[in-house]
Amino acid sequence: MSIVRLLSSLAPAALVTLGLLLLMHVLILRNMTEPEESKEFKIPEILMPEREITTEYDTSRPEKPQEPEEPPPELPEPEFDNPDVQMDISFAPQINTGGVQISGIGGFSSDGDYLPIVKVAPKYPARAANRGLEGYCTVEYTVTKTGETRDISVVDCPDSVFASASVKAAEKFKYKPKVIDGEPIEVPGVRNRFTFQMAKDK
Fold first, then answer.
1. Phi-psi category of 21—alpha, beta or left, where left has phi over 0 and alpha has psi -120 to 50?
2. pLDDT recorded at residue 105
3. If both were cysteines, with which of 106, 107, 165, 187 could 143 make a disulfide (CB 3.0 to 4.6 Å apart)?
4. What is the model's pLDDT at position 176?
């Protein structure tokens, strides 16, 4: 490294150093001056006046309502033409058996064949109604000792869309069971045919 380059680099460094020293001296002198006096503000004291708190209760009685000047009119007693007539009305449950006379259902006092008591109409399938289909379906079942149906099966149903509705309707059938020698017995192989027809417009 030549002496000329060394001297050329030292000169700017010395100038920068002197400038920083002067700047620091000026800043120190400014901080050493006393701060200016500021005006003082005194906050006045706030005093709340003393108050006595009292609780008052309303002990006055409500005014008595005024009585009506005129009493309400008296209603006349109802009069009956025949007060000595007595009526005895009683109601008994009725079972619609389609014109079939039934006797001895509870204790099976007399022998006889099974008779239908309740027959529920099947619900028209929505798929068949939307397509305008009509048809029939025959189911077979066993009438139990209690008059209910079991072992229900479809034996003749050209259109299977009516099968499910027919079976569900047959499950709700009620019968007077068949009685022999005073004892109810089961009757297998009972058939019922359901006919599905759309309502005709008049």
1. alpha
2. 42
3. 187
4. 94
Q: Which of 94, 117, 89 is nearest to 177 (CA)?
A: 117
**8-26 burial, b if ≥16 CB within 10 A, otherwise e?**
eeeeeeeeeeeeeeeeeee
Regarding beta strands 178-180 and 174-176, do their DSSP bridges make them parallel or antiparallel, or are they unpaired? Answer: unpaired
Q: What is the pLDDT of residue 40?
A: 67
Distances (CA, A) of 175 to 13, 144, 164: 125, 9, 21
Count CB atoms within 10 A of the CB of residue 186: 15
Which pLDDT belongs to residue 27? 82
Domains and CATH numbers, the chain: 115-196 (3.30.2420.10)
Q: What are 179's two structure tokens?
A: 């009685």
- Return the pLDDT at 57: 66
Q: Which residue matches tokens 């025949």?
A: 82
Q: What is the DSSP letter of 36?
A: P
Residue 74 bridge partners (DSSP): none
Measured between alpha carbons, how far is 192 from 141 in angstroms, rounded to an integer? 9
Can you tell me whether residue 99 is helix, strand or coil? coil
Task: Please state the pTM of the whole predicted model.
Answer: 0.45
CA distance 156 to 177: 25
CB 118 within 8 A of CB 177: no
Task: Give the Cα separation of 114 and 109 in Å (integer).
Answer: 14
